[in-house]
């Protein structure tokens, strides 16, 4: 008898067809976003869950799904899952690292350039019919070439961003929970380690790529923003909750920093509506990994993990090996 799984959100039909070769699949191709109660109901009798960041897999949901053996996230992050509760229940949890590093780094640069050079603001100004003549001081932005780039969170994506900076002749500084080995600092990343405070004081452009955890909630708040240059830009492609959105809105409104580019928000998709009143912020709807090849790679990586986990093998991207002890 085949294991039963739930594919919690719509995904590529060929990936669903691939899963159907291995499992009895309930697929939410209608793309309803399940409430916790609805998710718990759908998980009755299910051995596996193909999940996205939309699903909040809490201890309560886990307790209500006693048959569940594997939760495979189509994402690098997994702050939507109570990992400790899953481990206690013997549920293997996986994510999809590496396959989105380069695409996400590309997008970080797109967002950084749009923010520094005021591209969104310029397009809105043009579309509103404001472009009547050339002026020396219209929509003056900040240069990237020769500037100092500060990267907060120097994992694989942060390093991919750093590598791209060499074409702009930028100085790269970074802060991370642990310092990179010397060969990585002096190699393609050409990056110097500094304290978080020095990074914020020194960088012309700050990019956030660190993972979310409760300990890192509001890593960038009013006190941290106050350290930044008035001319600085802040780009967040990490997670909502890393930045105190209300504090950032106040700083942007009062021009205590020049601009921000944001792909993630607290309480997304219900972002703070005050962002929409500001001209000096570029807003995108959590699309840093949204190229078709990358999203396909993510979906297939999650499928690989689920097929392995329910097939009695070690999944490639297991986050909680302690769950094996419950088998």
Which regions are unreliable across 5 or more consecutive residues at pLDDT < 50?
none
What strand line-up does the widest sheet have?
8-7-6-9-10-11-12
Distance between the termini: 19 Å
Q: What is the count of structural domains?
A: 2
Compute the number of helices. 12
Shape: globular
Kindly report the name of the CATH homologous superfamily of the largest domain.
NAD(P)-binding Rossmann-like Domain
How many DSSP E strands?
12
- The portion of residues forming beta strands comes to 5-15%
Helix content bin: 25-40%
Assigned CATH class of the largest domain: Alpha Beta
The ordered string of helix (H) and strand (E) elements is EHEHEHEHEHHEHEHEHEHEHEEH
CATH architecture of the largest domain: 3-Layer(aba) Sandwich
Cα-atom Rg, whole angstroms?
A: 22 Å
Biggest β-sheet description: 7 strands, parallel
CATH topology of the largest domain: Rossmann fold
- Which class of secondary structure composition applies to the elements? alpha/beta
Task: Give the integer mean of the pLDDT values.
Answer: 96
How would you summarize what this structure contains?
By secondary structure, this protein is an alpha/beta fold.
What do you see in this structure?
The chain has helices at 13-20, 36-42, 59-63, 83-88, 101-116, 119-127, 156-164, 182-186, 196-202, 222-227, 245-253, 292-310; strands at 3-7, 23-27, 48-51, 70-73, 92-94, 148-152, 171-175, 191-193, 205-208, 233-236, 259-262, 281-283. The protein has 327 residues and is an alpha/beta fold. It folds into two domains: 3-99 and 292-326, 3-Layer(aba) Sandwich (Rossmann fold); 101-283, NAD(P)-binding Rossmann-like Domain (Rossmann fold). The chain has a seven-stranded parallel sheet, with helices on both faces. Strands 2-1-3-4-5 form a five-stranded parallel sheet. Helix 5 (101-116) crosses helix 7. The radius of gyration is 22 Å and the shape is globular. The mean pLDDT is 96.
